[in-house]
C-alpha cells in the first residue's frame, strides 16, 4: 500500500555517507536544548546533502517516549488540534488533558518537547546554510533553497503557536544568549519567513519527492503566510500558480491518506513502517489500548456533529466509533497503514501499530483550493466571484456534495475547511486566521467546563527554556 522507495533511498544514502566519513552522534541527534549544539560543520558536498536529509529526520522525530528526545511532528497534534474544538483526550486525565480544557501551563512537558524539537530542526537547517561553501555551484542554490524552505516552514508554525520568539538565523553556541533568548516581534519573524520562502520558490522545482521541499510547497505555504498577514492578492497569485500545475483532487478521499505520494499531496513528512528510527507512533496513540500514550486526539462531539452534517463521503474516512468504547470516536485518517485493528480495534495483521509508516501530510491540493477561496474573499463576509465558487465547488463535489453553490460565506468556508481538513492540525490556525477563535472557543469551553481566555490563543514559552535563560527569555501573557 505504501510507496516507500524514496524513503529507502534516503535512508540507504544516509547510511552510506555515515559509513564513509567520521561524524559524532551530534550529526543525527544534536543536543536537544533549543537551537544550540556543536559548531562542527560539514566539509564535503555529500555531507551537506546528508545534512539536508537530517533536517527532515528532525521533523520526522524520534519514535520513542524518552523525555529528552526530539519527537518532531509526532507532537504537533497536541499543540494544534487538541487545543481546538476538534479533538480531546479519551479520559480527560493526565498532562495531555490540559489541552482539552485550556489549562496548559509553562511546565507542560509536551509543549517543551515541541518547542525543543523544532528549534532543533532550525539548528539543522542553519548548519546546512553555514556549510554551503563546500557545495558545487551546480547545487549550491538548490541546497540553500531547501534549507531555507524548512527553516521558513518551522518558523511559520512556531510564530503562530508562540507569538514573539527568538529568531535564530545562524548556528549558535551556548555563549550566544542574546540570539537564543531574545524574543523578536512577530512582524519581524514573518518578514524573515517570507524572505526564506521567496528564495525557495526561486530556486526549487517540483521534480523531486513529496517528502522534500518543492517550489509548489513553498508557494502554497507562503500563500498561507500571506493569508495570515492579510495580504490577500499576493496569496491569490501564488495559489493560482500552484493550480496551474499537475496536482489534482484524488477522486477517492481515502486514497489521499492511504495511497501515499498521490497527486493531491504537495508536501508530506515521510515515515516507514516497521523501522524504529523512521516510523511514527501517533497512529497508535490515536487508538484505544494500542499505543504507549493511548487515547489522545479523540474526536469531540462538536467535530463529530460537523462531519455528520457537512462531511459527505469524507465522514467515514475521517472518524470511526471506538470498537471498545462505543460512546467514543477515534480519528480514522491515520489508522496504522490503513488497518482498522480488527473487531477489537487492537489486532493488526503483521503490524506493530507503534511502528506505523503513515506519512504526515503538511500541504495538499484541497487546502490550496480552499485557500484560493479565502484569498478572493479577502476578509469579507461572502463572495460570488466565479473563480472562488469553482474552487469551493470542486472540493465539495469530491465529497459527493454536488448542489451548485452561488455564493460562499466566511462561515461556510470555515466549516468546509473544518470537515475537509479535519484532524490535520489546521483547525486552531484557521480559527485564529479567520478571527473566530475567541467566539468559537469561548462557547466550546463553556460547554465542556473548560477555562478558555484570549491568552490561550498562544502557548506558553516552556518554563525550562526560561530557566536556562536565567530569566532573559520572557513569558507570554496569562501564564
Order of helices and strands: HHHEHHHEHEHHHHEHEHHEEEHEHEHHHH
CATH class of the domain at 27-204: Mainly Alpha
Quick one: biggest sheet? 2 strands, antiparallel
Per DSSP E runs of 2 or more residues, the count of β-strands stands at 10
Report helical residue fraction.
40-55%
The number of helices is 20
| Helix/strand/pairing category | mainly alpha
**CATH topology call of the domain at 27-204:** Serine Threonine Protein Phosphatase 5, Tetratricopeptide repeat
Overall 3D form: globular
| Cα-based radius of gyration, to the nearest Å | 21 Å
**Low-confidence parts, pLDDT < 50 over ≥5 residues?**
1-38
Mean pLDDT: 91
Distance between the termini: 45 Å
Q: So, CATH architecture of the domain at 27-204?
A: Alpha Horseshoe
Assembly state (oligomeric): single chain
GO cellular component, one term: cell outer membrane
Organism: Polaribacter aquimarinus
Family: Belongs to the SusD family.
Protein name: RagB/SusD family nutrient uptake outer membrane protein
Description:
With 479 residues, the chain is mainly alpha-helical. Among the domains are: 27-204, Serine Threonine Protein Phosphatase 5, Tetratricopeptide repeat (Alpha Horseshoe); 212-252 and 359-435, Serine Threonine Protein Phosphatase 5, Tetratricopeptide repeat (Alpha Horseshoe), CATH 1.25.40. It is 46% helix and 6% strand. A two-stranded antiparallel sheet has the order 1-5. It is globular and about 55 Å long. Residues 1-24 form the signal peptide.
Amino acid at each position: 500500500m505504501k510507496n516507500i522507495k524514496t524513503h529507502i533511498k534516503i535512508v540507504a544514502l544516509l547510511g552510506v555517507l555515515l559509513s564513509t566519513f567520521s561524524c559524532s552522534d551530534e550529526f543525527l541527534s544534536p543536543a536537544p536544548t533549543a537551537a544550540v549544539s556543536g559548531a562542527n560543520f560539514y566539509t564535503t558536498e555529500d555531507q551537506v546533502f546528508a545534512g539536508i536529509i537530517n533536517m527532515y529526520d528532525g521533523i520526522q522525530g524520534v519514535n520513542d517516549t524518552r523525555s529528552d528526545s526530539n519527537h518532531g511532528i509526532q507532537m504537533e497534534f497536541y499543540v494544534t488540534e487538541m487545543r481546538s474544538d476538534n479533538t480531546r483526550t479519551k479520559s480527560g486525565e493526565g498532562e495531555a488533558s490540559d489541552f482539552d480544557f485550556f489549562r496548559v501551563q509553562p511546565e507542560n512537558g509536551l509543549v517543551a518537547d515541541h518547542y525543543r524539537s523544532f528549534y532543533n530542526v532550525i539548528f539543522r537547517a542553519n548548519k546546512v546554510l553555514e556549510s554551503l561553501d563546500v557545495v558545487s555551484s551546480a547545487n549550491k542554490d538548490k541546497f540553500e533553497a531547501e534549507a531555507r524552505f524548512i527553516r521558513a516552514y518551522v518558523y511559520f508554525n512556531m510564530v503562530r503557536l508562540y507569538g514573539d520568539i527568538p529568531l535564530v538565523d545562524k548556528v549558535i553556541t551556548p555563549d550566544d544568549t542574546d540570539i537564543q533568548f531574545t524574543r523578536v516581534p512577530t512582524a519581524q519573524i514573518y518578514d524573515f519567513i517570507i524572505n526564506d520562502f521567496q528564495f525557495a520558490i526561486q530556486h526549487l522545482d517540483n521534480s523531486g519527492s513529496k517528502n522534500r521541499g518543492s517550489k509548489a510547497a513553498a508557494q502554497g505555504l507562503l500563500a498561507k503566510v500571506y493569508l495570515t498577514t492579510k495580504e490577500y492578492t499576493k496569496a491569490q497569485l501564488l495559489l493560482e500558480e500552484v493550480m496551474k500545475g499537475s496536482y489534482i483532487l484524488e477522486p477517492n478521499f481515502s486514497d489521499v491518506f492511504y495511497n501515499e505520494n498521490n497527486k493531491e499531496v504537495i508536501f508530506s513528512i515521510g515515515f516507514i513502517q516497521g523501522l524504529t528510527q523512521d516510523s511514527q507512533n501517533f497512529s497508535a496513540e490515536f487508538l484505544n489500548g494500542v499505543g504507549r500514550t493511548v487515547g489522545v486526539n479523540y474526536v469531540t462531539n462538536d467535530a463529530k456533529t460537523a462531519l455528520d452534517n457537512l462531511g459527505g463521503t469524507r465522514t467515514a474516512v475521517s472518524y470511526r466509533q471506538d470498537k471498545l468504547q462505543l460512546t467514543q470516536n477515534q480519528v480514522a485518517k491515520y489508522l496504522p497503514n490503513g488497518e482498522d485493528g480488527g473487531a477489537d480495534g487492537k489486532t493488526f495483521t503483521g503490524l506493530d501499530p507503534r511502528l506505523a509508516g503513515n506519512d504526515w501530510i503538511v500541504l495538499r491540493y484541497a487546502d490550496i483550493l480552499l485557500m484560493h477561496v479565502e484569498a478572493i474573499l479577502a476578509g469579507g463576509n461572502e463572495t460570488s466571484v466565479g473563480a472562488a465558487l469553482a474552487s469551493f465547488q470542486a472540493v465539495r463535489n469530491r465529497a459527493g456534495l454536488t448542489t451548485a453553490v452561488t455564493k460562499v460565506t466566511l462561515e461556510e468556508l470555515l466549516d468546509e475547511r473544518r470537515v475537509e481538513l479535519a484532524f490535520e492540525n489546521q483547525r486552531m490556525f484557521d480559527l485564529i486566521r479567520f478571527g473566530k477563535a475567541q467566539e468559537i472557543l469561548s462557547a466550546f469551553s463553556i460547554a465542556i467546563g473548560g477555562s478558555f481566555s484570549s491568552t490561550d490563543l498562544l502557548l506558553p514559552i516552556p518554563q525550562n527554556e526560561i530557566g536556562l535563560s536565567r530569566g532573559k527569555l520572557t513569558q507570554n501573557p496569562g501564564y
